[in-house]
Design goal:
heterodimer, A: alpha/beta, Rossmann fold, four-stranded parallel beta sheet, 4 strands, globular, B: alpha/beta, Nitrilase/N-carbamoyl-D-aminoacid amidohydrolase, 11 helices, 14 strands, 31% helix
Chain lengths: 273, 299
Protein backbone atom coordinates (compact mmCIF):
# COMPACT_ATOMS: atom_id res chain seq x y z
CA UNK A 1 0.00 0.00 0.00
CA UNK A 2 2.78 2.42 0.92
CA UNK A 3 4.64 2.32 -2.36
CA UNK A 4 5.29 5.58 -4.18
CA UNK A 5 7.11 3.95 -7.07
CA UNK A 6 5.81 5.08 -10.45
CA UNK A 7 6.13 3.69 -13.93
CA UNK A 8 8.45 6.32 -15.36
CA UNK A 9 7.69 5.46 -19.00
CA UNK A 10 4.01 6.17 -18.48
CA UNK A 11 4.72 9.34 -16.48
CA UNK A 12 7.09 10.57 -19.15
CA UNK A 13 4.59 9.97 -21.93
CA UNK A 14 1.74 11.70 -20.10
CA UNK A 15 3.81 14.68 -18.95
CA UNK A 16 5.55 15.41 -22.25
CA UNK A 17 2.16 15.09 -23.97
CA UNK A 18 0.73 17.51 -21.42
CA UNK A 19 3.44 20.12 -22.03
CA UNK A 20 3.09 19.84 -25.79
CA UNK A 21 -0.69 20.05 -25.65
CA UNK A 22 -0.86 22.98 -23.25
CA UNK A 23 1.82 24.99 -25.03
CA UNK A 24 0.62 24.46 -28.58
CA UNK A 25 -3.12 24.84 -27.97
CA UNK A 26 -2.62 28.47 -26.90
CA UNK A 27 -0.71 29.17 -30.09
CA UNK A 28 2.82 28.87 -28.70
CA UNK A 29 5.55 26.52 -29.82
CA UNK A 30 8.18 27.51 -27.26
CA UNK A 31 8.60 27.45 -23.51
CA UNK A 32 10.74 29.13 -20.90
CA UNK A 33 11.70 28.16 -17.38
CA UNK A 34 13.95 29.19 -14.56
CA UNK A 35 16.75 26.72 -13.91
CA UNK A 36 17.88 26.92 -10.30
CA UNK A 37 20.39 24.10 -10.46
CA UNK A 38 18.10 22.02 -8.27
CA UNK A 39 16.23 18.87 -9.15
CA UNK A 40 12.68 20.09 -9.70
CA UNK A 41 13.52 22.62 -12.39
CA UNK A 42 15.99 20.10 -13.88
CA UNK A 43 13.13 17.64 -14.35
CA UNK A 44 10.78 20.26 -15.80
CA UNK A 45 13.55 21.29 -18.18
CA UNK A 46 14.22 17.73 -19.34
CA UNK A 47 10.51 17.05 -19.90
CA UNK A 48 9.99 20.34 -21.72
CA UNK A 49 12.99 19.80 -24.00
CA UNK A 50 11.69 16.33 -24.85
CA UNK A 51 8.16 17.65 -25.45
CA UNK A 52 8.98 20.67 -27.61
CA UNK A 53 12.52 20.07 -28.86
CA UNK A 54 15.58 21.64 -27.24
CA UNK A 55 15.69 24.53 -29.68
CA UNK A 56 12.29 25.68 -28.47
CA UNK A 57 13.27 25.93 -24.81
CA UNK A 58 14.92 28.90 -23.12
CA UNK A 59 16.18 28.53 -19.56
CA UNK A 60 17.17 31.37 -17.27
CA UNK A 61 19.87 31.22 -14.63
CA UNK A 62 19.07 33.93 -12.11
CA UNK A 63 21.72 34.04 -9.38
CA UNK A 64 21.78 36.42 -6.41
CA UNK A 65 25.19 37.34 -5.06
CA UNK A 66 24.85 34.88 -2.15
CA UNK A 67 23.74 31.99 -4.39
CA UNK A 68 25.87 28.89 -4.26
CA UNK A 69 28.30 28.62 -7.19
CA UNK A 70 27.21 24.98 -7.43
CA UNK A 71 23.75 26.12 -8.46
CA UNK A 72 25.09 27.89 -11.54
CA UNK A 73 27.37 24.99 -12.41
CA UNK A 74 24.65 22.42 -12.05
CA UNK A 75 22.33 24.49 -14.20
CA UNK A 76 25.09 24.61 -16.82
CA UNK A 77 25.38 20.82 -16.73
CA UNK A 78 21.70 20.64 -17.67
CA UNK A 79 21.98 23.30 -20.36
CA UNK A 80 24.79 21.31 -21.95
CA UNK A 81 23.09 17.97 -21.56
CA UNK A 82 19.68 18.98 -22.89
CA UNK A 83 21.07 21.56 -25.38
CA UNK A 84 18.54 24.22 -24.48
CA UNK A 85 19.01 27.94 -25.02
CA UNK A 86 20.08 29.84 -21.92
CA UNK A 87 20.58 33.25 -20.44
CA UNK A 88 22.03 34.33 -17.13
CA UNK A 89 20.77 37.43 -15.35
CA UNK A 90 22.16 38.41 -11.96
CA UNK A 91 19.18 39.52 -9.87
CA UNK A 92 21.26 41.25 -7.17
CA UNK A 93 20.68 44.68 -8.70
CA UNK A 94 16.93 44.02 -8.83
CA UNK A 95 16.66 42.74 -5.29
CA UNK A 96 19.08 44.81 -3.20
CA UNK A 97 17.41 48.23 -3.49
CA UNK A 98 14.27 46.82 -1.81
CA UNK A 99 16.23 44.87 0.80
CA UNK A 100 18.23 47.99 1.67
CA UNK A 101 15.01 49.76 2.65
CA UNK A 102 14.81 47.65 5.79
CA UNK A 103 18.05 46.76 7.58
CA UNK A 104 16.14 44.35 9.86
CA UNK A 105 14.68 42.34 7.01
CA UNK A 106 14.43 38.60 7.78
CA UNK A 107 15.95 35.91 5.59
CA UNK A 108 12.45 34.75 4.78
CA UNK A 109 11.44 38.14 3.42
CA UNK A 110 14.65 38.42 1.44
CA UNK A 111 14.07 34.94 0.05
CA UNK A 112 10.54 35.87 -1.00
CA UNK A 113 11.83 38.97 -2.78
CA UNK A 114 14.38 36.87 -4.67
CA UNK A 115 11.75 34.30 -5.67
CA UNK A 116 9.48 37.08 -6.91
CA UNK A 117 12.31 38.86 -8.74
CA UNK A 118 12.95 35.59 -10.57
CA UNK A 119 9.26 35.43 -11.47
CA UNK A 120 9.49 38.96 -12.95
CA UNK A 121 12.50 37.97 -15.05
CA UNK A 122 10.74 34.77 -16.19
CA UNK A 123 7.58 36.53 -17.33
CA UNK A 124 9.52 39.37 -18.91
CA UNK A 125 11.66 37.04 -21.00
CA UNK A 126 8.59 34.92 -21.73
CA UNK A 127 7.05 37.85 -23.58
CA UNK A 128 10.16 38.47 -25.65
CA UNK A 129 10.93 34.80 -26.39
CA UNK A 130 7.26 33.96 -26.97
CA UNK A 131 7.64 30.98 -24.68
CA UNK A 132 5.08 29.74 -22.16
CA UNK A 133 6.47 29.71 -18.57
CA UNK A 134 6.76 26.14 -17.26
CA UNK A 135 6.50 25.51 -13.52
CA UNK A 136 8.63 23.34 -11.26
CA UNK A 137 6.65 23.01 -8.01
CA UNK A 138 6.31 19.42 -6.84
CA UNK A 139 3.37 17.91 -4.96
CA UNK A 140 5.21 17.77 -1.64
CA UNK A 141 6.04 21.46 -1.53
CA UNK A 142 2.63 22.50 -2.85
CA UNK A 143 0.90 20.48 -0.12
CA UNK A 144 3.23 21.79 2.58
CA UNK A 145 3.08 25.34 1.25
CA UNK A 146 6.87 25.34 1.14
CA UNK A 147 6.95 27.83 -1.67
CA UNK A 148 6.60 31.55 -2.39
CA UNK A 149 3.25 32.72 -3.72
CA UNK A 150 3.67 34.62 -6.99
CA UNK A 151 7.33 33.62 -6.82
CA UNK A 152 8.59 30.12 -7.60
CA UNK A 153 4.95 28.96 -7.78
CA UNK A 154 4.25 31.25 -10.73
CA UNK A 155 3.92 29.50 -14.08
CA UNK A 156 1.50 28.94 -16.93
CA UNK A 157 1.56 25.14 -16.66
CA UNK A 158 3.12 22.80 -14.17
CA UNK A 159 4.04 19.32 -15.40
CA UNK A 160 5.41 17.99 -12.09
CA UNK A 161 2.89 19.23 -9.51
CA UNK A 162 1.35 15.77 -9.03
CA UNK A 163 4.70 14.10 -8.28
CA UNK A 164 6.02 13.84 -4.74
CA UNK A 165 9.66 14.79 -4.28
CA UNK A 166 10.70 11.14 -4.08
CA UNK A 167 8.87 10.50 -7.35
CA UNK A 168 10.61 13.52 -8.88
CA UNK A 169 13.88 11.77 -8.00
CA UNK A 170 12.72 8.53 -9.57
CA UNK A 171 11.59 10.17 -12.81
CA UNK A 172 14.78 12.27 -12.92
CA UNK A 173 16.88 9.10 -12.90
CA UNK A 174 15.02 7.77 -15.90
CA UNK A 175 15.53 11.05 -17.77
CA UNK A 176 19.25 10.81 -17.05
CA UNK A 177 19.56 13.97 -15.05
CA UNK A 178 23.10 14.00 -13.64
CA UNK A 179 23.45 12.19 -10.30
CA UNK A 180 25.18 15.17 -8.72
CA UNK A 181 21.89 17.07 -9.02
CA UNK A 182 19.68 14.17 -7.94
CA UNK A 183 21.82 13.31 -4.93
CA UNK A 184 22.52 16.76 -3.45
CA UNK A 185 20.53 18.09 -0.49
CA UNK A 186 17.45 19.93 -1.83
CA UNK A 187 17.69 23.67 -1.23
CA UNK A 188 15.90 26.84 -2.29
CA UNK A 189 19.37 28.44 -2.04
CA UNK A 190 17.86 31.67 -0.76
CA UNK A 191 20.49 32.06 1.93
CA UNK A 192 23.82 30.41 2.65
CA UNK A 193 23.49 26.93 4.13
CA UNK A 194 19.72 26.69 3.65
CA UNK A 195 18.39 23.18 2.99
CA UNK A 196 14.76 22.18 2.58
CA UNK A 197 14.96 19.28 4.99
CA UNK A 198 16.81 21.39 7.59
CA UNK A 199 14.15 24.06 7.41
CA UNK A 200 11.17 21.70 7.31
CA UNK A 201 12.48 19.50 10.12
CA UNK A 202 11.91 16.18 8.37
CA UNK A 203 13.10 14.35 5.27
CA UNK A 204 11.20 14.25 2.01
CA UNK A 205 11.19 10.48 2.16
CA UNK A 206 9.38 10.51 5.51
CA UNK A 207 6.88 13.21 4.66
CA UNK A 208 6.14 11.84 1.18
CA UNK A 209 5.11 8.51 2.66
CA UNK A 210 2.84 10.28 5.11
CA UNK A 211 1.35 12.65 2.52
CA UNK A 212 0.72 9.69 0.21
CA UNK A 213 -1.36 8.01 2.92
CA UNK A 214 -3.25 11.18 3.87
CA UNK A 215 -3.86 12.62 0.42
CA UNK A 216 -3.77 9.76 -2.07
CA UNK A 217 -5.03 6.94 0.14
CA UNK A 218 -7.40 9.08 2.29
CA UNK A 219 -6.07 7.76 5.61
CA UNK A 220 -7.24 9.50 8.79
CA UNK A 221 -4.65 10.88 11.22
CA UNK A 222 -5.34 7.96 13.55
CA UNK A 223 -4.83 5.43 10.76
CA UNK A 224 -1.48 7.06 9.90
CA UNK A 225 -0.39 6.68 13.54
CA UNK A 226 -1.45 3.03 13.40
CA UNK A 227 0.78 2.67 10.33
CA UNK A 228 3.69 3.72 12.54
CA UNK A 229 3.98 7.48 12.03
CA UNK A 230 4.66 9.69 15.07
CA UNK A 231 1.46 11.39 16.19
CA UNK A 232 3.03 14.86 16.51
CA UNK A 233 4.54 14.55 13.05
CA UNK A 234 1.18 13.52 11.58
CA UNK A 235 -0.68 16.38 13.26
CA UNK A 236 1.91 18.98 12.33
CA UNK A 237 1.89 17.95 8.67
CA UNK A 238 -1.93 18.01 8.54
CA UNK A 239 -1.96 21.45 10.22
CA UNK A 240 0.63 22.72 7.77
CA UNK A 241 -1.36 21.46 4.79
CA UNK A 242 -4.53 23.13 6.06
CA UNK A 243 -2.79 26.39 6.94
CA UNK A 244 -1.36 26.65 3.41
CA UNK A 245 -4.55 25.94 1.48
CA UNK A 246 -4.61 29.65 0.55
CA UNK A 247 -1.44 29.22 -1.49
CA UNK A 248 -3.11 26.61 -3.65
CA UNK A 249 -6.02 28.81 -4.67
CA UNK A 250 -6.77 31.91 -6.62
CA UNK A 251 -7.90 34.72 -4.28
CA UNK A 252 -11.62 34.25 -3.53
CA UNK A 253 -13.86 36.92 -5.02
CA UNK A 254 -16.64 38.31 -2.80
CA UNK A 255 -19.91 37.30 -4.41
CA UNK A 256 -22.45 40.01 -5.23
CA UNK A 257 -23.94 39.25 -8.64
CA UNK A 258 -25.81 36.24 -9.98
CA UNK A 259 -22.74 35.06 -11.79
CA UNK A 260 -19.34 35.34 -10.17
CA UNK A 261 -15.92 34.26 -11.40
CA UNK A 262 -14.82 31.20 -9.47
CA UNK A 263 -18.29 30.16 -8.26
CA UNK A 264 -20.76 30.01 -11.10
CA UNK A 265 -18.79 31.18 -14.09
CA UNK A 266 -17.18 27.82 -14.81
CA UNK A 267 -14.95 27.10 -17.76
CA UNK A 268 -11.70 25.24 -18.03
CA UNK A 269 -8.67 27.20 -19.07
CA UNK A 270 -8.59 25.10 -22.24
CA UNK A 271 -12.01 26.46 -23.22
CA UNK A 272 -12.26 26.61 -27.03
CA UNK A 273 -8.89 24.95 -27.67
CA UNK B 1 -13.73 -33.60 -47.56
CA UNK B 2 -15.59 -30.77 -49.23
CA UNK B 3 -16.24 -27.70 -47.18
CA UNK B 4 -20.02 -28.14 -47.38
CA UNK B 5 -19.71 -31.72 -46.08
CA UNK B 6 -17.52 -30.56 -43.27
CA UNK B 7 -20.06 -27.94 -42.26
CA UNK B 8 -22.83 -30.50 -42.50
CA UNK B 9 -21.16 -32.61 -39.86
CA UNK B 10 -21.25 -29.78 -37.43
CA UNK B 11 -24.50 -28.02 -38.09
CA UNK B 12 -27.18 -28.85 -40.60
CA UNK B 13 -29.27 -25.68 -40.23
CA UNK B 14 -28.73 -22.30 -41.83
CA UNK B 15 -25.88 -20.27 -40.47
CA UNK B 16 -26.06 -16.50 -40.68
CA UNK B 17 -22.52 -15.88 -41.95
CA UNK B 18 -21.97 -12.44 -40.62
CA UNK B 19 -18.88 -10.34 -40.21
CA UNK B 20 -18.88 -6.83 -38.90
CA UNK B 21 -16.00 -4.56 -39.82
CA UNK B 22 -15.83 -2.32 -36.81
CA UNK B 23 -13.79 0.85 -36.49
CA UNK B 24 -13.14 2.78 -33.29
CA UNK B 25 -12.03 6.41 -33.47
CA UNK B 26 -10.11 7.47 -30.37
CA UNK B 27 -9.83 11.17 -30.97
CA UNK B 28 -8.76 14.29 -29.10
CA UNK B 29 -11.39 16.99 -29.16
CA UNK B 30 -11.40 20.78 -28.92
CA UNK B 31 -13.24 21.82 -25.80
CA UNK B 32 -16.49 23.49 -26.81
CA UNK B 33 -15.61 23.80 -30.51
CA UNK B 34 -18.29 21.62 -32.10
CA UNK B 35 -17.55 22.75 -35.64
CA UNK B 36 -13.93 21.75 -35.43
CA UNK B 37 -14.82 18.45 -33.78
CA UNK B 38 -17.38 17.74 -36.52
CA UNK B 39 -14.66 18.25 -39.08
CA UNK B 40 -12.52 15.68 -37.29
CA UNK B 41 -15.46 13.26 -37.23
CA UNK B 42 -15.93 13.63 -40.98
CA UNK B 43 -12.20 12.99 -41.53
CA UNK B 44 -12.31 9.82 -39.45
CA UNK B 45 -15.47 8.72 -41.23
CA UNK B 46 -13.60 9.08 -44.52
CA UNK B 47 -10.70 7.00 -43.20
CA UNK B 48 -13.03 4.35 -41.80
CA UNK B 49 -14.84 4.19 -45.12
CA UNK B 50 -11.53 3.64 -46.88
CA UNK B 51 -10.94 0.74 -44.46
CA UNK B 52 -14.35 -0.63 -45.47
CA UNK B 53 -15.75 -0.24 -41.99
CA UNK B 54 -19.45 -1.02 -41.46
CA UNK B 55 -19.65 0.77 -38.13
CA UNK B 56 -17.53 3.54 -36.61
CA UNK B 57 -17.71 4.27 -32.87
CA UNK B 58 -16.62 7.64 -31.43
CA UNK B 59 -16.00 8.33 -27.72
CA UNK B 60 -18.21 10.03 -25.12
CA UNK B 61 -18.94 13.70 -25.88
CA UNK B 62 -16.90 13.39 -29.06
CA UNK B 63 -18.52 16.49 -30.59
CA UNK B 64 -18.00 18.76 -27.58
CA UNK B 65 -15.10 17.74 -25.35
CA UNK B 66 -15.58 16.46 -21.82
CA UNK B 67 -15.36 19.13 -19.10
CA UNK B 68 -17.91 21.38 -20.74
CA UNK B 69 -19.25 22.96 -17.51
CA UNK B 70 -20.95 26.24 -18.40
CA UNK B 71 -20.55 25.50 -22.10
CA UNK B 72 -23.32 22.88 -21.90
CA UNK B 73 -26.10 25.01 -23.37
CA UNK B 74 -23.94 26.44 -26.14
CA UNK B 75 -22.64 23.06 -27.38
CA UNK B 76 -25.98 21.20 -27.26
CA UNK B 77 -27.52 19.80 -30.45
CA UNK B 78 -30.50 17.74 -31.48
CA UNK B 79 -29.96 14.73 -33.72
CA UNK B 80 -32.26 15.79 -36.57
CA UNK B 81 -31.95 16.48 -40.31
CA UNK B 82 -32.29 20.21 -39.68
CA UNK B 83 -29.48 20.38 -37.15
CA UNK B 84 -26.37 21.98 -38.73
CA UNK B 85 -24.08 19.33 -37.21
CA UNK B 86 -26.23 16.23 -37.43
CA UNK B 87 -27.28 16.82 -41.03
CA UNK B 88 -23.65 16.06 -42.01
CA UNK B 89 -23.41 13.04 -39.75
CA UNK B 90 -26.76 11.65 -40.90
CA UNK B 91 -25.66 12.01 -44.48
CA UNK B 92 -22.39 10.22 -43.69
CA UNK B 93 -24.35 7.41 -41.99
CA UNK B 94 -25.69 6.40 -45.37
CA UNK B 95 -22.28 4.88 -46.06
CA UNK B 96 -21.49 3.38 -42.67
CA UNK B 97 -23.20 3.25 -39.28
CA UNK B 98 -22.01 5.73 -36.69
CA UNK B 99 -22.00 6.09 -32.91
CA UNK B 100 -21.40 9.69 -31.92
CA UNK B 101 -21.15 11.40 -28.52
CA UNK B 102 -22.83 14.76 -27.96
CA UNK B 103 -24.83 16.97 -25.60
CA UNK B 104 -28.52 16.36 -26.32
CA UNK B 105 -31.09 19.03 -25.55
CA UNK B 106 -34.67 17.81 -25.23
CA UNK B 107 -37.75 19.80 -26.20
CA UNK B 108 -38.02 21.15 -22.67
CA UNK B 109 -34.36 22.23 -22.59
CA UNK B 110 -32.90 19.57 -20.39
CA UNK B 111 -29.35 18.69 -21.34
CA UNK B 112 -28.03 15.13 -21.42
CA UNK B 113 -24.73 13.43 -22.04
CA UNK B 114 -25.78 11.34 -25.01
CA UNK B 115 -24.67 8.93 -27.69
CA UNK B 116 -26.61 8.19 -30.80
CA UNK B 117 -26.57 5.35 -33.29
CA UNK B 118 -27.02 6.60 -36.85
CA UNK B 119 -27.58 4.33 -39.85
CA UNK B 120 -28.86 4.80 -43.40
CA UNK B 121 -29.43 8.50 -42.81
CA UNK B 122 -31.65 7.82 -39.79
CA UNK B 123 -31.36 8.15 -36.04
CA UNK B 124 -31.75 4.56 -34.87
CA UNK B 125 -31.32 5.17 -31.15
CA UNK B 126 -30.32 7.84 -28.62
CA UNK B 127 -28.99 6.91 -25.19
CA UNK B 128 -28.88 9.42 -22.34
CA UNK B 129 -26.25 8.67 -19.71
CA UNK B 130 -28.03 7.22 -16.70
CA UNK B 131 -25.19 7.46 -14.17
CA UNK B 132 -23.61 10.91 -13.87
CA UNK B 133 -20.50 10.72 -11.68
CA UNK B 134 -20.49 13.66 -9.28
CA UNK B 135 -17.62 12.88 -6.96
CA UNK B 136 -13.85 13.19 -6.94
CA UNK B 137 -12.78 14.95 -10.12
CA UNK B 138 -16.24 14.51 -11.70
CA UNK B 139 -19.05 17.05 -11.60
CA UNK B 140 -21.52 15.81 -14.22
CA UNK B 141 -24.61 15.88 -12.00
CA UNK B 142 -24.19 19.61 -11.61
CA UNK B 143 -24.46 20.30 -15.32
CA UNK B 144 -26.55 17.50 -16.83
CA UNK B 145 -29.94 15.82 -16.51
CA UNK B 146 -30.01 12.10 -15.68
CA UNK B 147 -31.13 9.72 -18.40
CA UNK B 148 -33.90 7.33 -17.38
CA UNK B 149 -33.81 4.39 -19.73
CA UNK B 150 -31.53 1.59 -20.81
CA UNK B 151 -32.78 0.01 -24.03
CA UNK B 152 -31.35 -2.31 -26.64
CA UNK B 153 -32.19 -1.60 -30.29
CA UNK B 154 -32.01 -3.40 -33.61
CA UNK B 155 -29.27 -2.72 -36.13
CA UNK B 156 -28.34 -4.38 -39.39
CA UNK B 157 -25.78 -6.39 -37.38
CA UNK B 158 -28.22 -7.64 -34.78
CA UNK B 159 -29.37 -6.12 -31.53
CA UNK B 160 -27.07 -3.62 -29.85
CA UNK B 161 -26.91 -1.35 -26.82
CA UNK B 162 -25.16 1.90 -25.97
CA UNK B 163 -23.71 2.86 -22.57
CA UNK B 164 -21.58 5.81 -21.55
CA UNK B 165 -18.65 5.51 -19.14
CA UNK B 166 -20.06 5.55 -15.58
CA UNK B 167 -23.10 3.63 -16.89
CA UNK B 168 -20.96 0.51 -17.14
CA UNK B 169 -19.11 1.13 -13.86
CA UNK B 170 -22.46 -0.03 -12.49
CA UNK B 171 -23.37 -3.65 -13.21
CA UNK B 172 -27.08 -3.13 -13.83
CA UNK B 173 -27.08 -1.24 -17.18
CA UNK B 174 -25.06 -3.89 -19.06
CA UNK B 175 -27.21 -6.58 -17.43
CA UNK B 176 -30.39 -4.81 -18.58
CA UNK B 177 -29.05 -4.49 -22.13
CA UNK B 178 -28.23 -8.19 -22.12
CA UNK B 179 -31.74 -9.14 -21.06
CA UNK B 180 -33.16 -6.70 -23.62
CA UNK B 181 -31.40 -8.62 -26.37
CA UNK B 182 -28.16 -6.73 -26.97
CA UNK B 183 -25.43 -8.99 -28.33
CA UNK B 184 -23.24 -6.04 -29.24
CA UNK B 185 -22.51 -3.65 -26.39
CA UNK B 186 -21.05 -0.34 -27.50
CA UNK B 187 -19.42 1.50 -24.60
CA UNK B 188 -17.99 4.97 -24.97
CA UNK B 189 -15.93 7.00 -22.51
CA UNK B 190 -14.05 10.18 -21.85
CA UNK B 191 -12.07 8.54 -19.09
CA UNK B 192 -9.51 10.77 -17.34
CA UNK B 193 -6.32 8.82 -16.63
CA UNK B 194 -5.52 8.45 -12.94
CA UNK B 195 -3.79 6.14 -10.53
CA UNK B 196 -0.19 6.06 -11.74
CA UNK B 197 1.73 3.31 -9.95
CA UNK B 198 4.73 1.22 -10.87
CA UNK B 199 2.57 -0.82 -13.26
CA UNK B 200 2.46 -0.41 -17.01
CA UNK B 201 -1.17 0.68 -17.06
CA UNK B 202 -2.98 3.37 -15.15
CA UNK B 203 -5.46 2.18 -12.53
CA UNK B 204 -8.34 3.73 -14.47
CA UNK B 205 -7.34 1.84 -17.63
CA UNK B 206 -6.94 -1.44 -15.75
CA UNK B 207 -10.39 -1.06 -14.16
CA UNK B 208 -12.20 -0.36 -17.43
CA UNK B 209 -10.38 -3.14 -19.29
CA UNK B 210 -11.17 -5.59 -16.49
CA UNK B 211 -14.91 -4.88 -16.47
CA UNK B 212 -15.19 -4.81 -20.27
CA UNK B 213 -13.66 -8.26 -20.39
CA UNK B 214 -15.87 -9.41 -17.53
CA UNK B 215 -19.08 -8.24 -19.23
CA UNK B 216 -18.07 -9.93 -22.49
CA UNK B 217 -17.40 -13.15 -20.56
CA UNK B 218 -20.47 -13.11 -18.31
CA UNK B 219 -22.87 -12.00 -21.02
CA UNK B 220 -21.21 -14.02 -23.81
CA UNK B 221 -21.47 -10.89 -25.97
CA UNK B 222 -19.27 -8.54 -27.93
CA UNK B 223 -18.16 -5.58 -25.83
CA UNK B 224 -16.63 -2.60 -27.62
CA UNK B 225 -15.06 0.31 -25.73
CA UNK B 226 -14.17 3.62 -27.36
CA UNK B 227 -12.29 6.11 -25.18
CA UNK B 228 -10.93 9.51 -26.14
CA UNK B 229 -7.39 10.85 -25.92
CA UNK B 230 -5.92 14.32 -25.47
CA UNK B 231 -5.82 16.79 -22.62
CA UNK B 232 -8.20 19.25 -20.98
CA UNK B 233 -6.29 21.44 -18.55
CA UNK B 234 -4.37 18.94 -16.42
CA UNK B 235 -6.61 15.97 -17.25
CA UNK B 236 -5.49 13.47 -19.83
CA UNK B 237 -7.56 10.78 -21.51
CA UNK B 238 -5.89 7.45 -22.14
CA UNK B 239 -7.55 5.97 -25.23
CA UNK B 240 -6.79 2.25 -25.48
CA UNK B 241 -9.93 1.17 -27.36
CA UNK B 242 -10.84 -2.48 -26.85
CA UNK B 243 -13.00 -5.15 -28.42
CA UNK B 244 -13.73 -8.31 -26.45
CA UNK B 245 -15.51 -11.25 -28.05
CA UNK B 246 -18.20 -13.50 -26.49
CA UNK B 247 -15.47 -15.69 -25.00
CA UNK B 248 -14.09 -12.66 -23.18
CA UNK B 249 -11.04 -12.65 -25.41
CA UNK B 250 -9.50 -9.36 -26.43
CA UNK B 251 -9.57 -9.25 -30.23
CA UNK B 252 -8.43 -5.67 -30.83
CA UNK B 253 -6.82 -2.90 -28.84
CA UNK B 254 -5.97 0.68 -29.72
CA UNK B 255 -2.82 2.44 -28.48
CA UNK B 256 -2.73 4.47 -25.29
CA UNK B 257 -2.60 8.30 -25.27
CA UNK B 258 -2.61 8.92 -29.02
CA UNK B 259 -5.24 9.38 -31.67
CA UNK B 260 -5.94 6.24 -33.67
CA UNK B 261 -8.45 4.42 -35.78
CA UNK B 262 -8.64 0.84 -34.52
CA UNK B 263 -10.13 -1.75 -36.84
CA UNK B 264 -11.55 -5.09 -35.76
CA UNK B 265 -13.39 -7.73 -37.66
CA UNK B 266 -16.16 -9.20 -35.54
CA UNK B 267 -17.29 -12.68 -36.49
CA UNK B 268 -20.85 -12.47 -35.24
CA UNK B 269 -21.22 -16.23 -35.52
CA UNK B 270 -18.99 -16.44 -32.49
CA UNK B 271 -22.10 -15.61 -30.46
CA UNK B 272 -23.66 -18.88 -31.55
CA UNK B 273 -20.56 -21.00 -30.98
CA UNK B 274 -19.93 -19.56 -27.54
CA UNK B 275 -23.53 -19.83 -26.39
CA UNK B 276 -23.76 -23.42 -27.65
CA UNK B 277 -20.85 -24.20 -25.36
CA UNK B 278 -21.75 -21.90 -22.50
CA UNK B 279 -25.51 -21.30 -22.22
CA UNK B 280 -25.41 -18.53 -19.60
CA UNK B 281 -28.07 -16.56 -21.44
CA UNK B 282 -30.34 -19.58 -21.79
CA UNK B 283 -30.03 -20.36 -18.09
CA UNK B 284 -30.36 -16.82 -16.78
CA UNK B 285 -33.23 -16.85 -14.26
CA UNK B 286 -34.65 -13.41 -14.85
CA UNK B 287 -37.79 -14.10 -12.85
CA UNK B 288 -35.70 -15.07 -9.86
CA UNK B 289 -33.83 -11.76 -10.18
CA UNK B 290 -37.09 -9.84 -10.42
CA UNK B 291 -38.73 -11.56 -7.45
CA UNK B 292 -35.66 -11.09 -5.28
CA UNK B 293 -35.39 -7.44 -6.32
CA UNK B 294 -39.04 -6.94 -5.40
CA UNK B 295 -38.39 -8.49 -2.00
CA UNK B 296 -35.31 -6.32 -1.48
CA UNK B 297 -37.16 -3.15 -2.51
CA UNK B 298 -40.02 -3.92 -0.13
CA UNK B 299 -37.70 -4.13 2.87
Amino acid sequence: MLDLTINTDVARQILTGFIKSEVTRVGYSRAILNLSGGLDSALSCALTAEALGSENVLVLRLPYHTSSPDSLEHAQLLIDKFRVQSETIDITDMVDPLIQHDPKMSDKRKGNIMARARMIALYDRSEEFKGLPIGSSNKTEILLGYTTMWGDMASAVNPIGDLYKTQVRQLSHSLEIPDVIIDKAPSADLWVGQTDEGELGFTYEEVDRLLFLIVDQRYSAQECVEEGFDENFVNSVIARMRRNQFKRMMPPIAKLSNRTIGYDFLYLRDWGT
Amino acid sequence: MRLSDHRGLIFSGKIRRMKLNLAIAQIATKLGDVESNLEKHLNYIKQAKAEKADLLVFPELSLTGYVVQDLVATVAHRPTDEDPVFKHLLKASQDLDLVVGFVDEDSRHRFYIATTYLSGGRVVHVHHKVYLPTYGLFDEGRFFAWGDSVRAFDTRFGRAGLLICEDFWHASPPYLLWLDGADLMLFSSASPGRGLTDREKLESARWVERVSKAYASMFTSFVVHSNRVGYEDGLHFWGGATVNDPNGELIAQGPYFEEALTIAQLDLNQLRRTRARLPLLRDERTNLTVSELQRILQK
